[in-house]
Design a protein that fits this description.
The complex is a heterodimer of chains A (183) and B (389). With 183 residues, chain A is mainly alpha-helical. Chain A has 8 helices and 2 strands; from the N terminus they run ααααααααββ. Chain A starts with 6 loop residues before the first helix and ends with a strand. By secondary structure, chain B is of the alpha+beta class. In chain B, helix 1 packs antiparallel against helix 2 and helix 5 packs antiparallel against helix 6. The longest helix of chain B is centred in the first third of the chain and has 26 residues. In chain B, 31% of the residues lie in helices and 32% in strands. The chains are: A mainly alpha (183), B alpha+beta (389). Chains A and B meet through helix 5, helix 7, helix 8, strand 1 and strand 2 of A and helix 2, strand 6, strand 8, helix 5 and helix 9 of B.
Chain lengths: 183, 389
């Protein structure tokens, strides 16, 4: 007995491995954080506050005139924020690296300790208040980061053993077991 | 049915521990070097905040992490390869006032000793006396036994030093029977002329009858069949008669080729065809048995020993056959299956189908009138649908 195969049947008889769908969890996570204004705003505000506190709120410039000192402090804080954000914090924020960004905020804040210890003594209460505010902002950002981190969880898992051969007609190699989470 | 946890374990969070150690070292260094200064106070304060968070998170995880109850449902009674099922997990917080926080739920399913952890599901808050139902779709594509590794609920507040892990053991094994192939009705054309072509090869039909056993005498039985010696040995006076069966009553005999030499160049292809041929042969058996043909299935196991199943009672023995083929692995010795083919071609006058793994029809090499070789091409063309694929 002879049975001729048509083209479709010949195609089905091929043995091709099944392509695994890409996970993409990290991309979803980063995309979610990139669109999260609260996360970015909280981190940038924490960086700004740390930058201002890191300059001793302008007092490290040692100028006598308070008006000029205040203006310089604001200007210096802005410069520091821009520089810090451009060089340290922003890439970390963009790459959704919360812990490194938080560490950068802490180091930025404590810069004044190294540069001008006396500036800390002059405004210790303000420094402590700024540190508390930074911590609160980081906590807000951390909660958003944690929530977005759930997107990194895989929607499905596969078990593919080296000798996984299943009885499909059109594929020779396949995964043995697949589990999908039902939302 | 809900059940309490089998065991609760505490897992350390290495990252949080490293952060805590770093912060403690920074605080300690500051306390040693800059004690009493404003800078020292600032550093201690800055380090104390995250330390407090970590310790608080650890306490929250420890308090609001355990004491849950869970139950699973949806495990299938009947599972075939390339099929699946939906597993439901019911998670209950039985506490009156205490919520459960930051829960991650998953379970594991293993195949041949390889566990697969399901994608975890997150539950932020499970209030007191509340329950939640989580679902997973499980697709099983390889035949064989699967072992359920149990449910795992992990509670960890972000930044916590520990994670409270609650396990609910599931002592269950799933058996994935071979995939279900729906065979095209054209397969009946294979029978055309087969039985007549074989003919009755034996000179004495009575000699074809095979002794199958003994049973109690029933009125109407042939007295010639009484087993006198055994009847005399019975504890109570009763007659025992011999029972015979005639193999030539079979309509269809399906032989499955399971021989795959381990040193074959196309080993992967043969293994793939081996998987398909099992399902295809079962599909043929199912097709002919549902049409009330008398079907006999024969193959050889890994050691070359013959396996034979008579499918005269389709509802029961087809399932037995499926279960027997769950664990069948290729046999390296090809001579065993040839002995099987020879015996089948000589013994019966039924249509003999030899489901081969090779492209070349074996009947051209070693012609037998009653044997029709079904090659992998036939498997493709005669299979109408693979259920679940």
């Amino acid at each position: 007995m002879t049975l001729d195969l048509n083209r479709e049947e010949r195609d089905r008889a091929r043995t091709e491995p099944t392509p695994f769908p890409p996970h993409g969890g990290q991309a979803r996570f980063e995309a979610a954080l990139a669109q999260d204004r609260v996360y970015r705003g909280a981190l940038l505000a924490a960086v700004a506050m740390a930058g201002a506190a890191g300059t001793g709120f302008g007092s490290i410039f040692g100028l006598g005139d308070r008006v000029v000192a205040a203006a310089l402090a604001v200007g210096a804080a802005g410069v520091v924020v821009v520089l810090a954000g451009a060089t340290i914090a922003w890439p970390l924020i963009r790459r959704a690296r919360f812990w490194q960004a938080a560490l950068a905020v802490g180091l930025l804040h404590l810069a004044c300790v190294l540069v001008a210890p006396r500036a800390v003594e002059a405004a210790l209460v303000a420094q402590l208040a700024a540190a508390s505010a930074e911590f609160a902002l980081l906590a807000v950002a951390g909660v958003r980061w944690f929530r977005a981190g759930l997107l990194r969880l895989p929607p499905a898992t596969y078990l593919r053993s080296p000798q996984c051969v299943v009885a499909r007609l059109d594929r020779g190699k396949d995964f043995t077991l697949r589990i999908d989470a039902v939302e | 049915m809900l059940k309490r946890s089998s065991r609760t374990t505490i897992r350390w969070n290495a990252a949080a521990t490293a952060w805590l150690v770093l912060l403690l070292l920074a605080g300690a260094a500051d306390a040693a070097l800059g004690a009493g200064t404003a800078a020292g106070v600032l550093i201690v304060y800055v380090t104390a905040l995250p330390i407090g968070w970590i310790l608080g998170a650890t306490v929250l995880s420890r308090i609001f992490g355990g004491g849950l109850a869970a139950g699973t449902s949806g495990w299938p009674e009947d599972l075939h390869a390339l099929g699946g099922f939906r597993l439901r997990v019911r998670l209950v917080n039985p506490h009156r006032r205490r919520p459960a926080l930051f829960l991650t739920v998953d379970f594991s399913l293993g195949w041949r000793g390889e566990p697969l952890v399901a994608p975890p599901r997150f539950i932020g808050v499970l209030g007191p006396r509340q329950e939640v139902v989580l679902e997973w779709d499980v697709v099983v594509r390889g035949r064989g036994a699967y072992s359920a590794g149990g449910l795992r609920v992990r509670a960890a507040f972000p930044g916590s030093l520990v994670a409270v892990e609650t396990c609910f053991d599931e002592d269950r094994e799933l058996v994935a029977l071979p995939a279900v192939y729906e065979i095209d009705r054209r397969a009946f054309q294979l029978l055309a002329g087969r039985r007549q072509a074989a003919g009755r090869l034996h000179a004495h039909p009575a000699a074809m009858e095979e002794f199958t056993g003994v049973r109690d005498y029933r009125p109407g039985d042939n007295p010639r069949l009484v087993h006198l010696a055994l009847s005399l040995r019975m504890p109570e006076p009763e007659l025992v008669i011999r029972e015979y069966e005639d193999p030539s009553e079979d309509d269809v005999c399906i032989l499955l080729d399971t021989t795959v030499p381990y040193d074959a160049q196309d080993l992967a292809l043969l293994l793939y065809r081996h998987e398909k041929s099992i399902s295809f042969a079962l599909g043929l058996c199912r097709l002919f048995a549902t049409r009330r043909y008398r079907v006999r299935f024969q193959t050889v196991d890994h050691h070359g020993a013959p396996l034979e199943y008579d499918l005269r009672t389709p509802g029961r023995t087809l399932r037995d056959l499926e279960r027997a083929l769950v664990g069948i692995v290729p046999a390296p010795d090809r001579r065993a299956v040839w002995r099987l083919v020879d015996a089948a071609s000589r013994r019966t006058n039924s249509a003999v189908f030899f489901v081969s793994l090779r492209d070349t029809p074996e009947e051209r090499l070693n012609p037998r009138l009653s044997v029709l070789t079904l090659t992998p091409r036939h498997v493709v063309s005669l299979t109408r649908r693979v259920v679940g694929a």
